[in-house]
Design goal:
Length: 482
């Protein structure tokens, strides 16, 4: 299926083609021809670094200390939880192999019809929720900056700030892949400089001898460690869209290099700045992260920091909105990519307005990050398992074929191995999750320990592997065509 002009060249890296930096990308989910590909895997480092030089990392890192962990425990959770970026990197390798978006590649896992059901949840609703989460972080900072410039504290001003941030983000998604690759390279440097300055002030005031008033022990410590791991690991698990940002690379690009540069680009800034958030909480009251950080910064630098927070959020959500628009097309909605971007943007904006004007920000962050893993963990496990079983041999032409009896039609359009794996994995994860909104019965029985991620991912991977073997739905000698 294609929703773009099939005759238009669309090389995001060819400055002589119409789809280049500063020009609106017209390609949707259709196949990227070999002669329109370019670039090297190392470009992915900056693409993934820019959105992860993040204010939200400060917030999440501080949460670990607020939960009662010691500094070494919090830092250990950060380093361990972020290892899940390896999964994001591995899945990215399927982009150049297939030459199409991740939302199309997942037809191999769920079937043409089954994939549509999965994408409604993972590609639309969860994407919109992440848009809202990140826009909430930026809006809190932007609203504070508006107050510094004398604007009144009112819902109208708050809503205006939110809508302006959302509009800027959607522009990035509309311009598309070429602009993202070039723009994010520069922004990753600028954002890193700003956040390193903030880090310097945090380190100057860090209480290296910090210890909780009542150190956690036994079951209470296990609960905090499990919850902290879930919160940290939820971010890399949400990026099953990573093939979208690699699909323009040449097909013969090294899968190891693609996986490595993607994972490293995200892991380093995410780990570093989450740890900085934990360090900040040893000496600052991070229950209000924005006010706490601004209290240690020089007054002239505060607007720079706030703008960096807003820009970072726009880079993060620009990627999310871009991929979500492709998911809308993959479901079969007959929309060009730009209207699809606008639809997901409106949904995310509405959710942001609710989160900021109605709900508590920190509660929104922690609850959402813990709940989404019930879906994103099993989905990521299925994607990685499928890639391993197929040895990353995906055929974009076959994947885009939607006719009955096609290569990925399976049984009545559903690959029951994938569907069963994500459902059983999700239900298992729900039994182990522990949030303020929902605590699974197994987690409750074991003292509220949150093991939602390992239980859900291991179950989904095992079910998918076993079922594909029983159904013989992934022939071991399957080779890509074309």
């Amino acid at each position: 299926m294609t929703t773009t002009n099939p005759g238009s060249p669309a090389s995001s890296l060819d400055e002589h083609g119409p789809e280049r930096t500063g020009h609106v990308e017209t390609r949707g989910i259709d196949l990227v021809p070999a002669d329109e590909r370019g670039g090297r895997p190392r470009q992915l480092f900056a693409v993934w670094a820019a959105p992860n030089v993040s204010y939200l990392s400060f917030v999440v890192g501080a949460t670990l200390i607020l939960m009662g962990l010691t500094l070494p425990q919090a830092l250990g959770v950060v380093l361990t939880g972020n290892l899940l970026w390896i999964c994001t990197g591995a899945v990215a390798a399927s982009g150049p192999a297939a030459g199409t978006s991740g939302s199309v590649i997942s037809r191999a896992m769920y079937g043409v019809v089954g994939n549509k059901v999965v994408l409604v949840l993972t590609g639309w609703l969860i994407a919109a929720a992440y848009l809202a989460l990140n826009w909430s972080a930026a809006s809190v900072a932007g609203i504070g900056l508006a107050g510094r410039f004398g604007l009144p504290d009112s819902s109208a001003v708050d809503a205006t700030v939110i809508c302006l941030i959302a509009a800027g983000t959607l522009l990035i998604a509309i311009f598309g892949h070429a602009t993202i690759v070039r723009l994010y390279t520069a922004l990753s440097v600028l954002l890193t400089v700003v956040f390193i300055v903030v880090t310097g002030y945090v380190l100057a005031g860090t209480d290296w001898s910090y210890a909780p008033a009542e150190p956690l022990k036994g079951p209470a410590l296990a609960v905090a460690l499990g919850t902290g791991f879930t919160i940290i690991a939820s971010t890399p698990l949400s990026y099953s869209n990573s093939p979208d940002l690699a699909r323009y690379l040449p097909r013969d690009s090294s899968p190891v290099a693609i996986a490595g540069w993607t994972a490293l680009g995200a892991y380093l800034p995410s780990s570093v700045f989450t740890m900085v958030g934990a360090l900040a909480a040893t000496s600052l009251d991070m229950s209000d992260p924005e006010a706490a950080l601004e209290s240690i910064l020089p007054s002239w630098f505060i607007p720079v920091f706030v703008l960096a927070v807003v820009v970072n959020t726009m880079t993060n959500n620009g990627m999310t909105a871009y991929s979500a628009s492709l998911s809308i097309q993959s479901v079969g909605v007959r929309l060009a990519r730009i209207p699809a971007v606008l639809i997901i943007g409106v949904l995310g904006t509405v959710m942001t307005l609710y989160a900021i004007l109605v709900f508590d920000f920190l509660t929104s962050v922690n609850t959402m990050l813990q709940l989404v893993v019930v879906v994103t963990g099993p989905a990521m496990a299925v994607a990685v398992t499928d890639l391993v079983l197929r040895r990353n041999r995906y055929n974009g032409t076959d994947l885009l074929e939607q006719r009955r009896g096609g290569p990925f039609w399976y049984h009545r359009g559903v690959h029951w191995a994938g569907f069963l794996a994500i459902v059983v994995g999700g239900l298992t994860s729900a039994l182990w999750v522990n949030t303020s909104f929902w605590t699974g019965p197994i987690a409750r029985a074991l003292g509220d320990i949150d093991l939602a991620i390992p239980s859900g991912m291991l179950t989904a991977a095992a079910v998918y592997w076993a079922t594909t073997r029983v159904l013989r739905s992934i022939p071991r000698d399957r080779e890509p065509v074309g």
